[in-house]
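Two entries, shown back to back:
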Amino acid sequence: MNPAWLEFLPWPELRVCLVALLVAGIGSLLGSWLIRLFTRLSRALPFAHEMLQRARQPIRLLMPLLGVQMVIGAASDDLLWIDGARRIVSLAMIAAFTWLGLRAADAVQRVIVMRHPVNVADNLQARRIQTQTRVLVRTLSVFVVIFGVASMLMTFPAARQFGTSLLASAGLAGLAVGFAAKPVLGNLIAGLQIALTQPIRLDDVVIVDNEWGRIEEISGSYVVVRVWDDRRLVVPLQWFIEHPFQNWTRRTSSLTGSVFLWVDYTTPLEPLRQEVTRLCEEARHLWDGRVKVLQLVDTNERAIQLRVLASSADSSLNWDLRCYLRENLVNFIQNHYPHCLPQLRATVGSAADTEAEADTRTAPAPSGKDDQVVEAERQPPV
């Protein structure tokens, strides 16, 4: 920069502003050129390419700010507004670096998600990796934001004094902050536990509060469960650590379901077993071929209970298979053995007949002379 022509400007503040604008323009052009260059060089590297794509805008902001920071830092301390300008540029740079850190973390998540898709048949490993990545990246993003905000506050002298006073009373301040931020910290710690131990993963089938659904989203503070009727159940992360719940896809998505039928004691079981076999073979798109059983599991004074076990590749297919078996078995019994449906047996008669029958059973039988008298009375006269 030639200082000769700058001497024609009457105010030194105007000189610094003009130089800062020129350096910012050069930095912006240089940043755009570097981004295009590295983007072409990184096309064969998916991770580096995605990182550059996500960091493009923060870098375009950082390059001019670095140039302005150099100019303002070299300027004289006697300028009227130099302290305020330096603080504003410092805050902008901290914000830009924070933005860059968030974009870099998001780029890592995107690359891992692309390399481990869940839209495949056996997606257990992919769901495990995606769950860990999403939770850890969101936790890292929270720490990046906290660090950026803290760095901004530390540029102010009053904030530094406040931080010193907090360190002097660390015990009391830590206790107060701990009680105030207990829900936030609890969910944050629960998110780390879920990421490491993985009691739930994305797309897991769970029973939460007697609601059947799939894990749709795991954020830094809550889990979204998509219920079977497209409702959304929002559950705090800490709830999954403190309460029991059912996970139907913890190890594998295969599931064995049951169908219960009440029938009469006269029902033949072997034809029903053959019908169950036929129905399962017919529904090969629902039945995975592992389990196919019909058993008599309970009895009472009026009927017997049959249980049909059948397995499927996942819970949705198993639900359809159970409904299919239940419907067709009921139709089979109605068409072939209608008398084998549950029946209530009872003796029907009038009240007088019932009392007469009871008197006959309870009255003593005549014997001896009385029998002869009764027999004589029954004889017709000669």
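entry 2 starts here
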Amino acid sequence: MRTPGGGSLPIKEFLKRLYEEYQNDAVPDSAAALSYYFVFSLFPFLFFLATLTAYLPLGNTVDTLLDRMRTVVPSQAMGLIDEHIRALVNKPRPSLLTFGLLITVYSASRGVDALRKALNLAYDVKESRSFWQTELLAIGMTVGGSLLGVLVVAGLVAGGYAGFWLARDLGVGTEYVFVWTWLRWPVTAAVIMLAGGVSYYLLPDVRQKFKYITPGSVAGTLIWLGTTWGFGQYVAHFGSYNVTYGSIGGVIVLMTWFYMSGFIFVMGGEVNAILEHASPAGKRQGARAEGEKAPPPEERPSAMPAGATSHATVAERSTGGPNPENPGS
């Protein structure tokens, strides 16, 4: 496997390192935390999005957005989202610049901030930016993601209408509708890959060049699309969440989908970090920039990641041997 900046990493060694990082960085725990923060952030995010679209001349953008979401979100979870966002849209929108809406944006940014912490763990760096910097970063990413979503949906709407008008005049309206229906999938994948690339670039506390296409963003996007489709089919044909969980079945489906999504994109960050650390021109593990000396192991987050206490003490993980102050450990 080729690494960025030259060099290679055997597949067997790559998989070994990926499994080690999966364990040491407690990826399942990070994904579980992310699923909670995503659910916590979802409806404030939708509220902000619905309020934002009310001030833009984009027509039925919310309906188009929901139609786009239905292609990837499991049906039971989509029913829950659809119900709440329509309730928000049908209510009179408050002024965009209100204190309540600012709180809403802050709440929606918690999922982004949780992803930042998980990616820092992937690169094995402690956060050096100030509290205000990380908060502004999370809020900026949330607002930027909202604007990106609105602009993409608006582009799909405008492009669809303009293309259909032109195709109808050329006598290929039926063929255009067929092509446009399938073209939306690569557009969706491209937007998700862009969001992943920006997240992997801005969120971890490391210095790097922006790359739209990275191994983590490509693998994460493709695996996420396939997993989402498979989970949607399972929920629609085999799952019995409503029987098992009753009225909160839709919430459980949504949290499960968020868990899988968080897991996949955190692992995408791990892939990028492993390949960069293995590259001769890349950063060392624990370093923030190329050529920078990495701090001692005991000063890195990996010295005692979540869930590692059952394997070794802090001293053992740092020095490779038993703790002299506690030989029985």
